[in-house]
Structure to design on (484 residues):
């Protein structure tokens, strides 16, 4: 096999290599600068193409190759391997959508692409925003709110659905989210196996990412802040199938070759804290007064805590689970949430796990019992007593009291203050480092978004369960259930 044949084989099989070739083809005045984040994004997208992940969201700052990867290279690569695939590409403006479409078509009409892939663009349908392959597949591009009547897609790719300057408008954000729910999503040819990829910078707590993460648990979220806010560990397989690992320390830039610490500070200096937190850190904050500040949040390692308890360095006063229960299970209704935690004799609270789900009543009964059993099995040894459980009295809570009163010692408790007041009163424990959170939990991203957005978040169930946990004095000894 000649060098050219080997190179073509690499471009056919390895998406990252294809991305680099695409960049060099359409960015003649720029120099490609390699970085680990490109490896991770390309690997995750290949998992989508292989059908191992059908819903993916990537949050990344502007100018980090996101559009070239997802709006230009990805459709061309998909059609190269499957010329029958139908792809819908979406962006916030017609001009941007057209630019990405032209670049993609340029790649597919290049000599090197035609040498390595069988896909050919049909002469019968070859417009700027809508071209087909001779095999019947194609790429259709539109802007948010555009007409999609009669169109179907195997892939939907959304690249920055809303401009940062528009994100402050509730009307525009809601219009974008409604268009997805009522129009775009319905265009998937196969709702179960169809692929949806979103790549965007964050612009608001309730932007497209916030909306999707709150409504659809099937989405995998890849969040890449320009400066790491805590230690990160990224893993992927390279084109040879070899596992690669990159560890990023807190404060380390995403791509030092593009923006080192100094240039990031310069960017932050000319932007509002609100805009920088969203567009560059992928952690949008409220323009109003949030009760819990992100910088207050402190973490602990679960295994170290277990060791400290076993050696006597930490003494546990009690174990407990705090439940906030929901009345309904519709997609726009609240969640039932369980916060599992322990309190130490020196007055610290260690949040170990958070469960969140929409459950009908029989499922809720079963989940209360199963989470209790799991928690007791893993942590019951820590203080020699069974966990307590804390839940709000009234409605579903009252029904649960009646169900469990013969099985567990249940006591009802009614809050006397509103939700905002309750969390405000308990916020000092978080600010002073008296409430710590387990690092590495799969529940953390959703929990953090809601906690730091409260009272302006879409949902507040996790905040209610936490403030309840911090407010109530559970009784160690026999397994009590406190309904708060």
């Amino acid at each position: 096999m000649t060098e050219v044949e080997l190179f073509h084989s690499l471009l056919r099989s390895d998406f990252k290599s294809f991305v680099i070739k695409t960049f060099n083809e359409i960015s003649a005045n720029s120099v490609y600068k390699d970085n680990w984040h490109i490896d991770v994004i390309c690997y995750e997208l290949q998992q989508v193409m292989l059908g191992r992940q059908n819903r993916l969201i990537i949050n990344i700052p502007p100018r980090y190759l996101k559009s070239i990867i997802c709006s230009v290279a990805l459709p061309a690569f998909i059609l190269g391997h499957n010329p029958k695939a139908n792809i819908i590409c979406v962006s916030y403006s017609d001009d941007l959508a057209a630019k990405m479409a032209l670049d993609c078509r340029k790649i597919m009409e290049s000599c090197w692409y035609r040498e390595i892939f069988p896909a050919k663009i049909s002469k019968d349908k070859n417009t700027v925003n809508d071209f087909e392959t001779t095999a019947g597949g194609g790429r259709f591009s539109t802007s948010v709110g555009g007409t999609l009547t009669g169109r179907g897609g195997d892939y939907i790719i959304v690249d920055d659905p809303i401009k940062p300057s528009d994100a402050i408008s509730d009307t525009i954000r809601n219009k974008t989210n409604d268009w997805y729910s009522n129009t775009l999503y319905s265009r998937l040819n196969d709702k179960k196996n169809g692929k949806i990829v979103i790549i965007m910078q964050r612009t608001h707590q309730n932007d497209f990412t916030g909306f999707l993460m709150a409504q659809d648990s099937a989405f995998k979220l890849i969040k890449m802040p320009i400066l790491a806010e805590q230690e990160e560990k990224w893993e992927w397989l390279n084109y040879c199938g070899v596992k690669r690992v990159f560890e990023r320390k807190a404060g380390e830039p995403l791509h030092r070759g593009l923006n080192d610490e100094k240039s990031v500070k310069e960017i932050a200096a000319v932007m509002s804290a609100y805009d920088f937190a969203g567009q560059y850190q992928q952690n949008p904050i409220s323009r109003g007064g949030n009760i819990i500040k992100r910088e207050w949040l402190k973490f602990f390692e679960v295994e170290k805590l277990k060791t400290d308890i076993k050696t006597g360095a930490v003494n546990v006063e009690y174990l407990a689970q705090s439940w906030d229960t929901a009345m309904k299970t519709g997609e726009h209704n609240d969640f039932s949430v369980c916060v599992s935690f322990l309190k130490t004799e020196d007055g610290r609270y260690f949040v170990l796990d958070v469960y969140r789900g929409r459950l009908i009543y029989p499922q809720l009964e079963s989940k209360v019992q199963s989470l209790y059993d799991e928690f007791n099995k893993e942590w019951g040894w820590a203080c020699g007593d069974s966990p307590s459980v804390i839940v709000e009295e009234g409605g579903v809570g009252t029904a649960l009291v009646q169900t469990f009163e013969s099985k567990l010692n249940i006591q009802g408790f009614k809050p006397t203050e509103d939700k905002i007041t309750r969390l405000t009163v308990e916020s000092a424990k978080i600010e002073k480092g008296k409430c710590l959170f387990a690092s590495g939990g799969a529940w953390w991203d959703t929990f953090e978004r809601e906690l730091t957005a409260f009272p302006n978040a879409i949902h507040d169930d996790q905040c209610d369960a936490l403030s309840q946990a911090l407010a109530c004095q559970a009784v160690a000894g026999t397994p009590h259930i406190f309904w708060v």
Observations:
- The chain is about 40% helix and 20% strand.
- Residues 3-280 form a domain with the Rossmann fold fold (CATH 3.40.50.300).
- Residues 361-379 form the longest helix (19 residues).
